[in-house]
Amino acid sequence: MAYQLQNTGIPVRCFNAYDESGIRPSNAELFLLDGIHMNIYGRAVYADVLSRWIIRTMGYEVGNEEDLLSGNWAENGE
Fold this sequence. Notes:
Strand content: under 5%
Largest sheet: none
């Protein structure tokens, strides 16, 4: 849906989980239980990537290594 709305003038932001997560067939055994469903590590990685995307979408700067739980990233907002 987001891709369909891109050229309509409606501001749409799309999180591409495949591109952003880094989970690939070559490393799936690290992140997935059965080739489809995420294990605990996969869920943690996905939550971290999605959280950073949401924070950046809101206008804050947050580094990939920055601890999100500290809340220090909130001081860098626009």
